[in-house]
Automatic annotation (TrEMBL):
Protein name: P-type Cu(+) transporter
Keyword Hydrolase (UniProt): no
Enzyme class per UniProt: translocase
Compartment annotation: Endomembrane system; Membrane
């Protein structure tokens, strides 16, 4: 156990030291209390944490007042041996505050969990342990995620605590809380030196098993963080190799009663520092001298950071920079030295595939079932069938001695291998769980079968001792049949569990094992320009480039591909890495990645994704991402994480499961003693108590007790949520919807309002010049017109903003330089003004003259701020409203609708206006209509102009009253927060960096995969088909279906026990005379969990609702069958709500535009506190990328 005594004293200095002390002689909680009591009242001691299991104490103190040696002496004065292990001093800027603790997150694989009681056992074993901040255990994924203070408890200690609970535990990885990846390569000279070790765990069956593994890891020094997955049977542990070597982690897991083996061990910083690690198996290495020479040879290669060879296992770990040297180059260096090297990282994938498919468990439980059945059937025949139906051949009635019968002796001999052979695992896990007071379902099995077995042995001994001529009542058939039914149930359950992860398994198997590449990728890339668009066939092993040129090919394992390789794809080949097509055209099937049914046309310059399938033509592509960096690997990682996380509703189920086993044991005892009392007190007890062959009242009561114990099973309750989440996330992945966990699924079911970003979400985000207005002095001739475009284009050179790119692209064509790289000229003195425009000095060089021009591009307000007047007819958005009722708001289809204008000034004189237009996505109207049909209101926020926003909203069907234009990223977040404050459950849909604050704030953030990595990271749901906005309502529909299935599973699991337990307890005996036999109860228990898993598997049949099609929804929208719903549609309008105040639909056309501007001015004040928006500021439309406010 671990105990803590925070704030023992208050230090007055800013220097704080953490000293670790090894203590020998502690045996119980009183010992830890004695150690803690020694520091009570000492002001220089801030905190004391004592671990009984590990024999460690961590003391935070002021080293200037109390030295580490003095601390050890104080502990020795308590009667214990103490030795200082380490003492690290840190500076604390605020002496009055408690020391800053940097938590780590460790992932662990936990084996042996079968139900919610198992997960509760794992959690209870870690909760309350000093240094553990939070614990999250997944039953189905067989993972545990633990946030803890690595200075107090290491990942290895956590694994050990879990193992003490009776489960297998292996550390998978550890990272600092909030970090994105591992830390430092092994052997590198980084400061942290932490390793991320992935451990495979065998034997976990339920949540209580993961709890045991967590308990085993929770108190181990050197463990920084861990996570456990029940279904994946993995533990990821981040640990300090100086304190806990990776080789010790499996031992900690095995001590808890589970099988454990290391899958991988890599440095924590290898990902975040763009460093990769490869694990190699070496063959031919003779001795340490050879190993040292090989390491020295590798370290001389550019890009190789560190190497480590273990002679005992002939394994090598190489850390390298993939941008400098690739995996294949590393292997080639080793092979050139005369050794063979095989990459063993793929073993992790193979092991995880086997874990996901439950191959090992299925084989083991099938074998156990067959063996148990082979013994149980003869016992059942001898005990039941022959005496009842074939008394003439009932050899079991032959008495060997008075009181000892041949049948009982044979049944005993046949039962022992089943009870203590097949049932050994139940005894091992039960005893360990009872040791930690966290009983699991295995305890029920052990109690039920052991009671029947030992009672039968007792009756045999009593009959033999008393020489009773009457044959004793034995129930050996109950023991064997119960274990047979339970092993059958576990076999069927694991087969069903294996199907729940089929989608993830298919994703992991998409990459091919071998790949064909060009031997010289640089030459192949250069020569690709000389190839025609259609591939030229050549001899095998060569590709003909020209009549006198060939480029050799070679076939290599996929894991040896490195960035920069040029891969050859033949028709029907699977894509092995992410890349860019450099030669040829073909159609590629991306359905397995994005869910898109139709093949996608790929040509030169097109992106290609690993795991997709090439069509009918051959193409070549250049590799840009390999291995774990590919989009497919990221999807697999996302789905794995989603299936590891737990929905909030599952936590309650696991809590109930934690109390389930003790409750059932109590009910079993009540049943036994209750019926014993009633059978002797009632004048006319139920006839079964007095029937011949029933075995007497004690035997009947015992059978009723056993039936209660074995009938009730917490497995169904514990599997209700994780199986549905695993199947649901897998189905979503197959449809291009990546959901980040069960909590997201649950939150998505409550969404009442969806906020859309405009650019890139509702629209394509690809601006194009609609028309231009150029002042007469620049249109006198073609040369002056081309010069105008050249000047404008130079000012937008290098812009990444959609508007800037559109202007630059048009300028290249209109300036008369379409065939050249860029525009002739130079640019300097660039000044970006936030929300306004850009100022630059350009110097065209297309003519003989070299004249510099000062250029301004931006909105009208920007030019006016530079003392450049803009004609009123060039800026209709800022014109004063007139009394003409038809001149208020631009209608869709007119020149003003959806137009974004930027004005141009050259040499401080107005020179023209460029009008650009964005196009609405084809599925935008249908997506908004689908949400309205589902009862979900919609709104739109954008940084674009008000007129453009109203035009797009009117086109797609978003209520005009629910528009916010000209808002910054922080204001988008404030709008989402305001909606949530009013009781709305908000989903935010976006794709860019400027959407990430709102995505992170929303109840559910939905990002388009075409967007930025920041947006995808901040989102909860990622849509792999960004052009199909129907994926937004489809994701919410999927979430509802999954959550309905979870509730159905939970109701079934509860009703199963609520209805079945009264029968098992014999409550209906007085009325029906019916008693549930223990064998039938065991069969029912086995089927309960199977039924829940099968119910979850039915989610595989999920499809989008039949009405969710573009054609049908657009038709209903046009006909008015689907009416837009505003915010707060579920109830009366909220008084004082700024959204309610945007009620412009009922206003007269004359004042419509003015009221919209006034309302948005009020909104600006509300969300920013900056005061009203200036009248012209609401029409800002051009914001260069460099001026976009960064996410906060």
């Amino acid at each position: 156990m671990l105990s803590a005594n925070p704030h023992v004293g208050a230090t007055s200095r800013s220097a704080i030291a953490t000293t670790s002390i090894k203590i020998d002689g502690m045996t119980c909680g009183a010992c830890t209390s004695a150690v803690e009591g020694a520091f009570q009242g000492i002001h220089s001691v801030r905190d004391v944490s004592v671990s009984l299991i590990m024999g460690r104490a961590a003391v935070q103190h002021d080293p200037s007042v109390l030295s580490p040696t003095k601390i050890a002496e104080m502990i020795e004065d308590c009667g214990f041996d103490a030795a200082v292990l380490s003492s690290e001093e840190q500076r604390n800027p605020d002496p009055a505050s408690s020391p800053t603790t940097r938590f780590s997150v460790t992932n662990l694989a936990v084996e042996g969990m079968t139900c919610g009681a198992c997960t509760s056992a794992v959690e209870s074993g870690l909760n309350g342990v000093s240094g553990v901040n939070s614990v999250d255990v997944s039953l189905l994924s067989e993972r545990a995620v633990v946030e803890h203070d690595a200075g107090i408890i290491t990942p290895e200690q956590i694994a050990e605590l879990i193992e003490d609970r009776g489960f297998g535990a292996r550390v998978l990885d550890t990272a600092l809380a909030g970090s994105k990846g591992p830390s430092v390569p092994a052997g590198s000279e980084e400061k942290s030196g932490l390793l991320v070790t992935t451990v495979a765990i065998g034997g976990m069956t339920c949540g209580a098993c993961t709890s045991s593994v967590q308990s085993a890891l929770g108190s181990v020094d050197g463990v920084i963080q861990f996570n456990i997955s029940l279904l994946a049977e993995r533990a990821v542990v981040v640990h300090d190799p100086a304190i806990l070597p990776a080789s010790k982690i499996p031992d900690l897991v095995e001590d808890a009663g589970f099988d454990a083996s290391i899958v991988s061990s890599e440095a924590q910083a290898s990902i975040s520092k763009k460093t990769q690690q490869v694990n190699l198996s070496l063959h031919g290495l003779r001795d340490g001298v050879s190993a040292t020479a090989l390491e020295d040879n590798l370290l001389q290669q550019p890009g190789v950071h560190s190497t480590s060879i273990k002679m005992a296992t002939s394994r090598m770990v190489v850390s390298f920079d993939p941008s400098t040297i690739g995996i294949r180059s590393v292997v080639e260096v080793i092979e050139a030295a005369g050794y063979n090297a095989l990459i063993v990282d793929s073993d992790d994938t193979n092991a995880q595939l086997q874990s996901l498919s439950k191959t090992k468990e299925i084989q083991e439980w099938k074998r156990s079932f067959i063996i148990a059945a082979s013994f149980a059937v003869p016992v059942f025949l001898i005990s039941m069938i022959l005496p009842m139906y074939f008394p003439g051949i009932d050899f079991g009635s032959f008495a060997l001695f008075p009181g000892l019968y041949l049948g009982d002796l044979v049944c005993l001999a046949l039962t022992i291998p089943v009870q203590f052979g097949i049932g050994k695992r139940f005894y091992v896990t039960s005893l360990k769980s009872l040791k930690h007071r966290s009983p699991t379902m295995d305890v029920l099995v052990m109690l039920g079968t052991s009671t029947a077995f030992f009672y039968s042995c007792f009756t045999m001994i009593m009959a033999l001792c008393s020489m009773d001529p009457k044959r004793p009542s034995t129930v050996f058939d109950t023991c064997t049949m119960l274990i047979t039914f339970i092993t059958l149930g576990r076999w069927l359950e694991n087969r069903a569990k294996g199907q729940t992860s089929a989608a993830l398994s298919r994703l992991m198997c998409l990459t091919p094992s071998m790949t064909t590449i060009y031997e010289d990728p640089i030459a192949a890339e250069k020569l690709a320009e000389r190839w025609s668009s259609k591939p030229t066939s050549g001899a095998i092993g060569q590709s003909t480039v020209a009549e006198d040129m060939t480029v050799n090919q070679k076939c290599i394992p996929t894991e040896l591909i490195q960035v920069g390789d040029v891969v050859i794809l033949h028709p029907g080949d699977k894509v092995s890495a992410d890349g860019v097509v450099i030669r040829g055209e073909s159609y590629v099937d991306e359905s397995m990645i994005s869910g898109e049914a139709l093949p996608i046309h790929k040509k030169k310059g097109s992106q290609i994704i690993a795991g997709t399938v090439n069509g009918t033509n051959s193409i070549d592509f250049k590799v840009i991402r390999t291995g774990k960096d590919t989009q497919l690997s990221q999807i697999v990682k996302l789905v794995q994480d989603a299936q590891t996380s737990r929905a909030p509703i599952q936590r309650m189920a696991d809590i109930v499961a934690g109390y389930f086993v003790p409750t059932i044991i109590g009910l079993g005892l009540i049943t036994f003693f209750g019926w014993m009392f009633l059978s002797h007190v009632l004048p006319h007890p139920p006839t079964i108590f007095e029937m011949a062959g029933s075995g007497g009242r004690v035997m009947v009561c015992l059978k009723l007790c056993i039936s209660v114990i074995v009938f009730a099973c917490p497995c169904a309750l514990g599997l209700s949520t994780p199986t549905a989440v695993m199947v649901g996330t897998g189905v979503g992945a197959e449809h291009g919807i990546l959901v980040k966990g069960g909590a997201v699924l649950e939150a998505a079911t409550r969404v009442t309002h969806v906020v859309f970003d405009k650019t890139g979400t509702l629209t394509t985000g690809r601006m194009s010049v609609d028309h231009t207005r150029i002042e007469p002095q620049w249109t006198m001739n073609d040369w002056r017109r081309q010069l105008w475009w050249l000047i404008v284009g130079l000012a937008e050179t290098g812009s990444e903003h959609p508007i800037g790119r559109a202007v630059f692209s048009t300028a290249i064509t209109e300036s008369g330089h379409p065939g050249e790289d860029g525009l002739p000229g130079s640019m300097g003195d660039v000044e970006n003004c936030v929300g306004q425009g850009v100022s630059a000095v350009v110097e065209p060089t297309s003519s003989g003259q070299r004249i510099r021009h000062h250029v301004l591009l931006g909105n009208a307000n920007f030019l006016r701020s530079k003392d450049v007047p803009v004609p009123a007819d060039a800026d209709p958005d800022s014109a004063e409203p007139v009394e003409d009722p038809e001149a208020d708001i631009p209608k869709p289809g007119t020149t003003a609708a959806g137009i974004t204008r930027i004005h141009v000034a050259i040499d401080n004189r107005y020179a023209g206006t460029i009008s650009l237009r964005d196009t609405v996505k084809e599925t935008a109207v249908a997506a908004v209509a689908a949400l309205h049909r589902m009862g979900i209101s919609t709104s739109m926020v954008t940084g674009d102009t008000l007129s453009t926003a109203i035009s797009i909203a009117t086109t797609v069907g978003i209520p005009t009253a629910s528009i916010c234009a000209s808002v910054s990223p922080s204001e988008k977040r404030s709008i989402v927060s305001a909606l949530q404050a009013e009781g709305e459950r908000v989903a935010m849909v976006g794709d860019g960096i400027n959407d990430s604050p709102a995505l992170a704030t929303a109840s559910v953030g939905i990002a388009l995969a075409s967007g930025t990595d920041v947006a995808v990271e901040a989102a909860d749901i990622v849509l792999m088909r960004p052009d199909d906005l129907l994926s937004v309502p489809a994701s919410l529909s999927l979430s509802r279906s999954v959550f309905k299935r979870i509730k159905l599973n939970l109701i079934w699991a509860c009703m199963y026990n609520v209805i079945g337990l009264p029968f098992a307890m014999g409550l209906f005996l007085p009325f029906t005379g019916f008693m549930l036999p223990p064998m039938a109860a065991g069969g029912a228990m086995a089927l309960s969990s199977v039924s829940v898993v099968v119910s979850s598997l039915l989610l595989k049949l999920w499809r989008r609702p039949s009405w969710m099609t573009v054609e049908r929804l657009e038709k209903e929208f046009r006909s008015g069958a689907i009416s837009p719903a505003g915010v707060g549609h579920r109830g009366n309008a909220r008084k004082g709500s700024w959204w309610t105040s945007i009620n412009i639909l009922s206003d007269s056309p004359r004042s419509l535009r003015r009221r919209v501007e006034n309302v948005f001015s009020s909104l600006w004040s509300l969300v920013t506190g900056k005061g009203p928006i200036p009248a012209s500021q609401g029409d800002e439309g051009y914001v260069p990328l460099q001026t976009v406010e960064p996410p906060v």
